[in-house]
């Protein structure tokens, strides 16, 4: 629990002092006592840095302080697309971040690789406005609409690539004024991608590519029914089988890779297709915009019937309204025994639930960029995760649908959390704790976690050594 | 303390249950237990409503639910200048709100009444851009610049009124992109008003008018040196004397009025002019943009030397950066024995300090509209006061410089707190608790508080009776 007996002592000590009549010495002592309490709570306080890490930390904090100072001057410059130029971002992008614990399958891969898929054979495209607006994709033998090549010729390859990059993304971000509006647009992207990605021969390649781009554990999938060239639909178990086969293949070819698991996450509806593949399909979730969907409580009875090996990883509290039925999802997620909470944006308005999450060791999947893009909050400095960090509530940094906002799988989210949400003095200890948390709170079993931690640690030490060397180079110049 | 032994029991009970394997019945019982904890914590939970209040509450909640539903559809409609049309705002504007505990003297009165002052005799005006831009006002016998009448003729009375309304205000609000930018603009308004309001014969009238517009307790004043028609400056004690005489006069003419006190609040500098007038000048504060001013700790020694009858009511933590020296002001305010904290916007990022505020019964002066206008947060739903409400930390709703955003002294802030910050189910109990808090945490002595509470209660009961009658009328139609 966060409120240790020692904290109680401090409260009582200050309560029994007439502070207004302190001597300057008393004031300084009391101030130092309270301050030290703050210093030793918070995410990352349990980490001890090595000598090499200390050296790396100095360089990181130097860059952080520089960007912080720029931000205090003009926080409006703190925007997504300029971040890649920042030296701090460059450092963070190379940091081994552990696992991406919250990612949705059809928005994992970079848009560049999605656009490559439009060059595959037998792709047809349905357009309106004389070919100006793409409405749907479809792989087929027979001609259902215009061939993709024809459209490419008509509009020019470069233009079409540019156009698709916009259609598959949430840009321009400023065009959404509300959460509901942003959600509608995002669901439109999913629809547009369906015909492209749900083509059975492509599905495995897409997932393989995602594994190449990053290590994704607990990939949330709505388990679409894949289709074949002749239009026939495969059973859903086939979708899982493809996932499984692709992963085996990838692991064989990349022995340094940890593992990947699936969380079956249909759109706010309980379906029983999760009973096969124990050990690979490890969890269950319900996704979709919570404001407009059914609350978790409505599915409680069915959910509790799911087999024991299926853990819960519920989306809950992804709202900035306070006290609507979306907040109730947080309560239900916890009481139903969820292992993690996706978003939980509203949990700081429910201190009892926040303390329960901490006590029950339920990690919150914090997705800073997603929250900004989906209009939950425009200013990172008001993100509720600051309170989670201060209260040392278990948390991981995650992304969700990074491709849609053209972000790196985790780097943008780490950057925003580190610079915009965490306190000014949060340093390498904070980064190390959150990276380690992604393995600690992953869906791996204990042995898997130990192995994963070992693999991660080797990469981490290498990264730290590189920064320390970089620092020494700078000093010797 | 918020964490009662009972809460610990709930934590332990849930911790020792295998929630994932609950029966549906267990789930429902556990859910209800946790839920009831939430229901009985939070600001207002200690209030018992009378029968008449219950009736009034039904009408209020009916209007609130209606506006909430509109807001969920499109929160972007939730803006300041459209609020006055709302039926809920009409109800809240008539609600007896107790005292305005945070208001700065030169921005208390409505701009309409400030503009009336420009019709006084002997007013001269300094302009640039051929009379297009007003730079300063000055009362004088000799001609220092152009007479005000001449400018009025030149630009036309109606146009000039319109122009001054803009110059004296923070509109258009959207034109500020950062906190620092908004602050610069606000300091410009204060400068422009100086020559107008600091004219000795006017000062008393201005304060008298403020008392007419609302009951302001703990008015924060920088104690300007007033000037006379011949240009001579009065000693600062004269400024306080005028305040005191005007208040006496007002109280004589308005026996239902409670009282008003001054808090001496120089711009981040300790001056000793507060020792006279005990019982009227009751407090001390340091004001100004905290980011760019000196931290409280720098003044600690001098502050602790101020006489015992001067209480502290410090501005602190008015920032959305996390971990800068502005946050330290929060710590210092508390350790120096402050009675209230003005803003404390960043306190939810410092749980130890938040628990200290609760334990030491230090009320936070929450100013929703000010925070929005000064760019701390654009969306009320992310305002940190939601966590204060949930944690039942002492708080009052206050305004600051309401005239500058053309808001009513307290009604806009109550409306935004009630609809945008408090939970959906916050009702008349919440409103009553926050109104009562404004007296409980005022600078009055115990006897004064008892008397004030009596006066407030009579007005409150009348207001409740009126709403209940309104409801009955509606039902009989």
From TrEMBL, chains A, B:
Reaction it catalyzes: adenosine + H2O + H(+) = inosine + NH4(+)
Recorded GO MF terms: adenosine deaminase activity; metal ion binding
Pfam families per the UniProt record, alphabetical: A_deaminase (PF00962), A_deaminase_N (PF08451)
GO terms under biological process: adenosine catabolic process; inosine biosynthetic process
EC number: 3.5.4.4
Alphabetical UniProt keywords: Hydrolase, Metal-binding, Secreted, Signal
Residue ranges occupied by any Adenosine deaminase domain in the UniProt entry: 280-451
Listed cofactors: Zn(2+)
NCBIfam families in UniProt: adm_rel
Family stated for the protein in its record: Belongs to the metallo-dependent hydrolases superfamily. Adenosine and AMP deaminases family. ADGF subfamily.
Protein name (Swiss-Prot/TrEMBL): Adenosine deaminase
């Amino acid at each position: 629990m966060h409120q240790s007996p020692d904290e109680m002592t401090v409260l009582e000590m200050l309560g029994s002092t007439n502070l207004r009549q302190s001597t300057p010495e008393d004031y300084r002592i009391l101030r130092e006592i309270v301050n030290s309490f703050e210093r030793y709570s918070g995410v990352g306080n349990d980490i001890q840095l090595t000598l090499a890490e200390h050296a790396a930390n100095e360089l990181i904090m130097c860059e952080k302080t520089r960007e912080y100072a720029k931000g205090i001057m003009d926080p409006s410059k703190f925007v997504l697309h300029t971040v890649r130029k920042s030296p701090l971002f460059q450092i963070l992008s190379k940091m081994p971040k552990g696992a991406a614990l919250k990612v949705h399958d059809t928005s994992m891969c970079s848009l560049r690789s999605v656009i490559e898929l439009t060059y595959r054979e037998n792709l047809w495209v349905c357009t309106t406005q004389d070919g100006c607006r793409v409405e749907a994709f479809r792989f087929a033998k027979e001609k259902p609409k215009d061939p993709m090549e024809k459209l490419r010729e008509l509009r020019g390859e470069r233009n079409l690539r540019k156009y698709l990059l916009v259609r598959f993304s949430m840009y321009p971000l400023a065009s959404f004024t509300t959460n509901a509006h942003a959600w509608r647009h995002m669901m439109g992207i999913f629809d547009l991608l369906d015909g492209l990605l749900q083509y059975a021969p492509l599905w495995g390649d897409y997932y393989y590519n995602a594994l190449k781009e990053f290590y994704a554990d607990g990939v949330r999938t709505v388990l679409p029914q894949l289709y074949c060239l002749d239009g026939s639909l495969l059973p859903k178990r086939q979708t899982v089988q493809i996932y499984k086969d692709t992963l085996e293949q990838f692991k064989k070819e990349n022995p340094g890779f940890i593992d990947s698991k699936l969380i079956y996450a249909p759109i706010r509806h309980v379906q029983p297709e999760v009973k096969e593949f124990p050990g690979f399909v490890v969890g269950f979730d319900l996704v979709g915009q919570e404001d407009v969907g059914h609350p978790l409580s409505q599915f409680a009875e069915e959910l509790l019937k799911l087999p024991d090996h299926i853990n819960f990883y519920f989306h809950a509290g992804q709202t900035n309204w306070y006290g609507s039925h979306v907040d109730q999802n947080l309560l239900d997620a916890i009481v139903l025994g969820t292992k993690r909470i996706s978003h939980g944006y509203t949990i700081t308005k429910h201190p009892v639930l926040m303390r329960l999450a901490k006590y029950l060791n339920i990690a919150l999947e914090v997705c800073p960029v997603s929250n900004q893009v989906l209009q939950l909050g425009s200013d990172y400095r008001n993100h509720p995760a600051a309170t989670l960090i201060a209260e040392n509530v278990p948390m991981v940094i995650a992304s969700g649908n990074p491709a849609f906002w053209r972000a790196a799988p985790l780097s943008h989210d780490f950057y925003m959390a580190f610079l915009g949400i965490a306190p000014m003095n949060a340093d390498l200890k904070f980064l190390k704790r959150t990276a380690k948390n992604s393995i600690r709170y992953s869906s791996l079993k204990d042995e898997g976690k130990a192995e994963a931690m070992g693999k991660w640690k080797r990469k981490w030490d290498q990264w730290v050594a590189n920064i320390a060397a970089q620092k020494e180079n700078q000093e010797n110049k």
